Amino acid sequence: MTTRTCRTLALGAVAAVGCLALAACGGGAPAGGGAPAPAPAKPAQPLKIAAVIKGLDNQFFQAMQKGIEDASAGGGVPTTVQAAASITDTTGQTDKLTGLAGQDYGCYVVNPITGTNLVQGIAQVTASGKPVVNIDRPVAPEAAEAAGLKIATYIGTDNLAAGRMAAAEITRMLPGGGKIAVVGGVTGDVTSGERIQGLISGVGPGIVVAQSVAANWERQEALTQATNVLTANPDLAAFFVANDDMGLGVARAVANAGKTAQVRVISVDGNPDALRAVKAGELTATVAQYPYAIGEMGVQACRAAAAGASLPAKVNAPIMLITKDNADQAIAAAPRPLGDYPNPFPALIGK
């Protein structure tokens, strides 16, 4: 064998060993010349929800918190709920959302105290591509547009419809017409204004609004205002009151005047104290809205959004008229609604 032939064989042996080494380390192409196998995908992170609501000093928002927590537990979705110190704590509520915005939550449920106090925090959340579900109090449309907010859906009471429901009951009770008075919340408040607008647009012929006053959502102030209204209008037939807390104050004024059998009082909310007052005959009726259902649907909407579903822009929460005839059933069902109601979100979860 020549020297040149030996050198060639030696080089071939080295090359063969090198190829075997590369194959053993996985550094070459797989057999057949295909592309390298892709790295395994990371598992999707489980959904976590953050909810920021109004103050728990009000029964309404206590029921909302329970709805959020029950829907969270039932759906197996961890949810952090933070509430403002009171229903007027706009700065504290803003700080809570800002503190949660940068954390690893996949969806946010927000219940603003005003139409604008959470705009900055919502903008921070939506800028990161995470969905925001707005419940109960809508973000002001002008503020949302100016900040470029993307709200996945809004869930809340149709306050015009609540006012019209009360109007239908007053019309039924006063077929011959009569004088009524209206007690609103804070002057200029959207919720109060819509309830009163629905009432006025819905009452039948012959029913006249003799006087309209504001009682700042406070029971004691409503008692004082109603006492004055009764003095000025001795032939008054009914009161429409924009929330239950004020409604209970008005009912006390009517009782103090010895007119519980003559002057009807219908309010809005359906809180536990009001339901008991309807059963006792102190309040004539309440148009119940259901914060429990609003909170529950808020969590369901987050789950649907996380599943990639397209959500409706607006969903009306249930409202139901509670009178002495169905007060016992309403108390037994509380805080859940009395009867079935439309809810689009369960069908969207998992799609």
Polypeptide structure, described:
This protein has 351 residues and is α/β, with parallel strands linked by helices. The protein has two domains: 49-151 and 291-318, 3-Layer(aba) Sandwich (Rossmann fold), CATH 3.40.50; 159-288, Response regulator (Rossmann fold). Helices cover 45% and strands 17% of the residues. The chain contains 13 helices and twelve strands. The chain has a six-stranded parallel sheet with strand order 2-1-3-4-5-11, sandwiched between helices. It has a six-stranded mixed sheet with strand order 7-6-8-9-10-12, sandwiched between helices. Helix 6 (159-173) packs parallel to helix 7 and helix 8 (219-232) crosses helix 9 (244-256). It is elongated, with a radius of gyration of 31 Å. The termini are far apart.
